[in-house]
Structures are given as C-alpha cells and as structure tokens.
Specification:
about 450 residues, globular, 15 helices, single chain, binds nicotinamide-adenine-dinucleotide
Length: about 450
C-alpha cells in the first residue's frame, strides 16, 4: 500500500481541489510502511479555508439554537455509528490499539453531547436596578472564525474538545490537525457534512509550521485553541496574542504518582502500568514518574516488573495487543535515547524495552517496549524532560515531605496521583500539592 492514501484539505464542505506545493508522508507505525501522503497548506489554502469560514459565519451565527443543536445531534449519531471505522483509521496512522482509539472517540463524543446542551449553556444574565433605574444584562455571542491546532496523540478526541463547542456557540472553525495522523479529522468533516452542517462552518487544513503561522497571522481568525508540546504552546500563545486574538494553549506534562508505604502495592503497580504504558505512554496524562517513599521501592518495582512482563506489545488492530508502536521512527529513537541516557547517568534499567517481543514480529515498525528506569534522580534528563513514550521512571525518596517538595518543584503540572492507605495523608496531598489536577486513591 506504499504511497496509497492521499489526504487533502476540507474547505467549504468538500475536499480542496487545488494542487499542493508541499506534501508530508503518512506512515503505518506498526509496519513502518509509507501509507500515503498529506497535502501541506500554504498561504492560498489557509486564505481559502478562512474565507470559507468567514463567509459561513453570518448564516451560522443567525441559525437558531434549535437549528444548530439538530445538526449536533445528527453529528453525534453519525460519529457514534462510525466509531469502529474511526478507531481503525486512528489506530492505523497513530499505532494505538483499536480499543484505545475507540475510547478516544467516545471521550470526544462526550464533548459533542455536552455541546448539545448549548441552548441552556448560552443563557445570559440580567441584573435589575444595578444603579438607580439602570438594569444590566450580559449575553454570550459568537466571535467569528475560530482555529484549532492539535497534536498527534489524540487525532479525534483533542479536535473534539474544541470544535463542537465553538460550532454550537455559532462560530465557524478551521482545524489544523497533526500532519502525522490527519485522516480522522477529514472523516469527521465528512460526517459533519452528512449531518447537515452548512458548507464552510467546519474546515480542515493540513500542514506544519507554515499552516499554523498562516492561521496565527490571519486577520479574520478571531480565536485560537492549541494543544501540543510546551515550546510550541508558548510560541502559539505569544504569536496569537500579539496579533490580538483570544488564545488558549495547553502544553506538555510530567505526571507523578506518589506511593506511600501504607499503600496497596498491587493496586499501585496496576495503575502505574496502565497509566504509564497505555497508548505507549503517548498521552499527556500518562504517569511518567513513580515517586516511591522508603521503604516501598523494591517491592513496588518488583510488582511493576511482574505486570510489565505480561504486557503484550503488538499492532493496534490485533485484538491480543495491549500496547502499540510509537508514532514515528524519529520519535521512537528519541524516546530510546532517554533510556540510553538514563543508564549513562546512573539509573538502573529494571525493565529494558529496547528490543521488544512484538506479536507478529517487529519488522520495520516503530517499536519500543515498556521500559522501567529505577533509581532515577531529579537531575537526570529522563526526569527533567517530557519523554512521551513507554518509559516509567522510579524516583525513590525518604519521606512524604521530600516527595511533596519534588512534585511541587516540577515545572510541568498536569496531574498527580497518590496511593496511600491513610486518608489524612491524601487530604494533605490534595491541599498542598502545587499542580493543576489531582487524583486521589486511598
Ligand atoms: P507538537 O507541539 O509537536 O505539535 C502540535 C501541533 O503544533 C501540530 O498540529 C503541529 O503540526 C504543530 N506544530 C509543530 N511544530 C510547530 C512549529 N514549530 N510552529 C507551529 N506549529 C507547530 O505536539 P505533538 O508531538 O503533536 O503532541 C504531543 C504533545 O502534546 C505532548 O507534549 C503532549 O503532552 C501534548 N498534549 C497535551 C495535552 C494537554 O491537554 N495538555 C493533550 C494532548 C497532548
């Protein structure tokens, strides 16, 4: 199937029929084969997509809430009906196992379902007599063209965090998905059309920095939503804000799991393995650091090793597989370099995934098996950087206080979980840990 699939932009309710100046390759990570190519947008394609979205805006803004929600309900039904097809498409380009890919479609659908409640969510407020004889009211109005720029690791779910709400509110949308797995977004665009969304309300442009810059500088783009790595999030935030746009930008993560001596180690090891190696660790909420408070380290690492030994690595469409390959050869090599670097810097390789056993054979696929680096210290690159792969670092500390200091000092801040048998420790953790989201398991 080398060179087989050709993915192009979706503009004004149909595939773009212009000729691309530049294209990127799409791979099948499980085999390493070239699966097709994707057109990269330049100035002309960005202008065409934004113009289509701008032209569609007045009509869509004026569509009644009930007209908009009718389309949303139909879209919800269509995505639900095509969940398996979408999951297989995602799995083939991303590598994650099909059940995981179906899960991401489900979580995206939950946002569509939330957006179906938009008539209620868009209610304004009215305050009578705020000053003598003066009333004040507030209403929620759409902005115009919104743009979404999304990462490779959730090619359906992350775009669906953005466009259902934007569209339900009466905005029009231009999505720039990851160029590494672009097909799901085009399939979603086709389903929108089938659901009766007017042409131009939802558009997809593919590409790299050129396409992103085109959106960030376009005067008709009023708002930008970004999810991806931290350096690009900073760039998108600064550039879009400097151009007067409303912008939200979500970046990378280094999620910690704190295990206290009184924790149920079996439960903690189960969680570390599923949260560390699910989707090959290519999840912003993946647990990448286990913080083991003395004397729990040896027993916990043994319990993790026991479970990792049973994990089945293989192609995403094999029902036996529990973990698929990484997204690209370069990314696999980058992740493996952290394993080499960790060992060189003094970590102990408790599980070595560099030459994994793969269902059906590794071939030229982008494989790296589950890996556990023990005795990692905060000065090591494996601790400091977001690796975004199946590498779990175990940091050993002497006390709960030391663990808290370590976690709170980490510049990333997505999520942290605590494993303890002590409700008071969990409460302290909830109140004291300085991260964005906290999961508690007592
Ligand atoms: P990435 O930052 O490389 O790419 C994200 C998007 O930005 C893509 O559409 C890409 O084409 C574009 N892009 C890449 N380089 C660019 C540049 N120089 N200028 C402008 N645009 C550019 O991220 P990724 O590798 O696709 O995704 C993985 C990252 O996303 C991880 O860091 C992960 O933690 C993060 N992520 C965060 C969340 C969250 O909720 N915070 C959710 C999912 C993923």
């Amino acid at each position: 199937m080398s060179g087989g699939r050709h993915v192009t932009h979706w503009i004004n309710g149909k595939p773009f029929d212009g000729r691309a100046q530049r294209r990127g390759d799409i791979y099948e990570p499980a085999s390493g084969r070239l699966a097709g190519t994707v057109d990269f947008a330049g100035r002309a394609e960005i202008d065409a997509a934004v113009a289509a979205a701008a032209a569609a805006f007045p009509g869509w803004r004026d569509a009644s809430l009930s007209q908009r929600t009718k389309v949303l309900f139909r879209f919800r039904e269509l995505v639900d009906r095509h969940r398996d097809e979408l999951a297989r498409l995602i799995s083939s380009e991303h590598g994650k196992v099909v059940s995981d890919a179906a899960g991401e479609v489900t979580r995206g659908l939950e946002v569509v379902e939330f957006a179906c409640g938009i008539p209620h969510l868009l209610k304004g407020g009215f305050s009578e007599n705020v000053s003598t004889g003066v009333d004040a009211y507030s209403i929620l109005q759409p902005l115009g063209v919104a743009a979404g720029i999304t990462p490779f690791n959730f090619p359906a779910m992350v775009p669906m965090w953005m466009f259902p709400i934007a569209i339900a509110c009466g905005n029009t949308f231009v999505l720039k998905p990851s160029e590494k797995d672009p097909s799901a977004s085009v399939r979603l665009a086709e389903l929108w059309a089938e659901a009766g969304l007017p042409d131009g309300v939802f558009n997809v442009v593919h590409g790299d920095k050129t396409a992103v810059d085109g959106l960030l500088h376009h005067p008709d783009v009023k708002a930008v939503s970004f999810v991806g790595s931290t350096p690009i999030a900073r760039y998108v935030y600064a550039t879009a804000a400097a151009n007067g746009k409303r912008v939200q930008a979500l970046g990378g993560a280094k999620n910690h799991m704190l295990v206290l001596p009184d924790a149920d180690l079996g439960l903690a090891a189960d969680a570390a393995v599923s949260a560390g190696f699910g989707s090959a660790g290519e999840r912003c909420m993946a647990i990448s650091v286990v913080v083991a408070v003395d004397p729990v380290g040896d027993d916990l690492v043994a319990a993790i090793r026991e479970r990792v030994a049973k994990l089945k690595v293989g192609p995403g469409d094999d029902p036996e597989s529990q973990m698929g390959p990484l997204i690209t050869r370069e990314h696999r090599d980058r992740v493996a370099s952290y394993v080499d670097g960790g060992v060189a810097q003094g970590a102990v390789l408790a599980v070595d995934g560099r030459d994994p056993e793969v269902i059906g054979g590794a071939g030229d696929g982008f494989w790296l098996g589950p890996t556990v680096l023990d005795h990692v210290t905060p000065d090591m690159d494996a601790y400091k950087d977001e690796i975004f792969g199946p590498v779990l670092s175990v940091v050993r500390v002497g006390s709960y206080e030391e663990a808290m200091e370590l976690i709170s000092a980490n510049p990333y801040g997505n999520g942290t979980a605590i494993f303890t048998g002590d409700g008071a420790a969990a409460r302290r953790f909830q109140n004291e840990v300085e991260v964005g989201m906290v999961g508690i398991n007592v």
